Amino acid sequence: MNYELFFFDLDGTITESKSNVDDEMANIISQLLKHKKVVIISGARFSQFKEQFIDFLPNGTNLENLYIAPLTGGSFYSFKDDNWVKVYEDALSPEERLKITSILKRAIKDNDFLTPEKIYGDQIEDRGGQITFSALGQKSPVEEKKLWDPSIEKRKALKKILDKDLSEFEVSVGGSTSVDIRKKGIDKAYGINKIASLLSIPKEKIIFFGDAIFEGGNDYSATTTGVAIQKVSGPEETKSFLKEYLKKN
To answer: In this predicted structure, what is the pLDDT of residue 1?
Structure first.
């Protein structure tokens, strides 16, 4: 299929968790951007996209074909006149953020499995439109993240607790150690549907790449949108698919 719009999750799909994009991936995405539109959609803040991905793209990359969707699609940026411009943002209210943070702190206190021996930085991050819990902290090493919850059972257990206590919000499992909480209805399906409409691109011309395409995972909602889905196990598999695609198109 000759797709016009490519959606990519960030951590676990384009990069390793909270890691910078490598040169090979940056060059592949740059090649894709010559003729295709690309949206990177993730629960991260815009600043993390810039530090982890945008700043590593080669000189001359066609940034006007690149779009950034932070906060799992609850926010959207485009590149115009040499600047990144916010198109929309669906933020949590101060009261909502306080409630989510308070309940998360209580869950951590009441459940020993959420307090590992060593924590690297804050476990709770307020991103404005999303609150993210990272069990090992925001700055934990990638290898330790991979070992903490490979079966996803710990994060699913936390999600079950939060689904009960924060039923008016969207709760999803993401990354290697994290759980994300957002406004109800704000998920990757929301972002894909809204952005596809803004860019006037039909669903049959869109493909989504993600690693957390399982029930409760933060990429799973993409499967409800009608776009093509490419599940990957990590950045290397994403590279392999894109190399093959670029050869044929």
So the answer is: 80
So what's the architecture of 94-183 in CATH? 2-Layer Sandwich (3.30)
For residues 4 and 205, is the Cβ–Cβ distance under 8 A?
yes
The DSSP bridge partners found for residue 124 are: 133
What's the pTM?
Answer: 0.84
| Residue 131, amino acid | I
Q: Share the mean pLDDT of the chain.
A: 94
Q: Band the pLDDT of 57: cuts 50, 70, 90.
A: very high
Instruction: Give the three-class secondary structure for 140.
Output: coil
- Domain range list for the chain: 5-90+186-248, 94-183
For 191-222, b/e burial (b = at least 16 CB within 10 A) is bbbbbbeeeebeeebbbbbbbbbeebbbbbbb
CATH architecture of 5-90+186-248: 3-Layer(aba) Sandwich (3.40)
Q: Which residues contact 133 (CB under 8 A, 6 or more apart)?
A: 104, 108, 114, 123, 124, 158, 178, 179, 180, 181
The C-alpha atoms of residue 104 and residue 87 are separated, in whole angstroms, by: 30
